[in-house]
Amino acid sequence: MKKLFLSIIPVLFVISGFCQGLQTVKLDSDVTVSMFPGYQKKDTLNQSTYTANALNGYMVVIRQANAKGNTALKKSSDLNKVLKTYVKGIQAESENSVAENVRDTTVGTLKAKVFTLKTDNGGDVTLRDFLLLYTQDVTYTFEYVYSSNTVDFSKKEGKAFFSSIHLGPDMTWTDQYQSRATGMSPTTKIEVFGGGALVLILVIVLVTRKRKPALG
User: Fold this and answer.
1) CA Rg value for the chain
2) Inter-CA distances, 6 with 110, 148, 195, Å
3) Tens digits of residue pLDDT in 145-159
4) Is the pLDDT of residue 189 over 70?
């Protein structure tokens, strides 16, 4: 029991030190995240990149403005397709990399995609945890990078980092897609089923006529 307690102490110090050292970084009027002091920011055309060292890895945040006149997504399935395309694009950027544990999550009222990119550098394995958040105007990429040798400590840091993402009250699901409707709309259902019923009536009439005995 004493050995177990002693093994927990370093973990508690890591979590405590990580949380106390964070400071809020305002990406824009809608999104904030917590990073270590001394983070660096680099602005390029339509993109801002934030980087900071952590205790057992480092973190990267990218705020990418989408193209002007970007077509609004119609429904949740369209958003899922866009996020899957982003995952494939990130995987294609790194050789010997595989996207693992790809899954959906939520940040506030918005949908997001999370996954781990595993890169084998010939014995040295690098792990990169991603959270992708897409809106019509901006795409946010949150990344925590660490080595497979420090998984136990790094996972706790990464969890604190991703949990610190906060959205402003004006951010709603309508910033991602236009309609929550699934399947066919009421108008489409009337057209489909109404048309089907008409075809069925015509078939019945034709069959009935053929079965009538000829007169004369």
Assistant:
1) 26
2) 40, 23, 73
3) 999 888 888 989 999
4) no
Identity of the amino acid at 169: P
CATH number of the 17-175 domain = 3.40.1000.10
pTM for the full model?
Answer: 0.76
3-state secondary structure at position 28: coil
Number of Cα atoms under 13 Å in the Cβ half of residue 113: 27
Angle in degrees, CA 193, 78, 170, rounded to 5: 115
Nearest to 38, CA basis, from 49, 48, 51? 51
pLDDT in tens, 67-105: 988 889 999 999 999 999 999 999 999 888 999 999 999
Percentage of the chain exceeding pLDDT 70: 75
Q: In angstroms, what CA-CA distances link 176 with 77, 109, 124, 203?
A: 11, 10, 38, 45
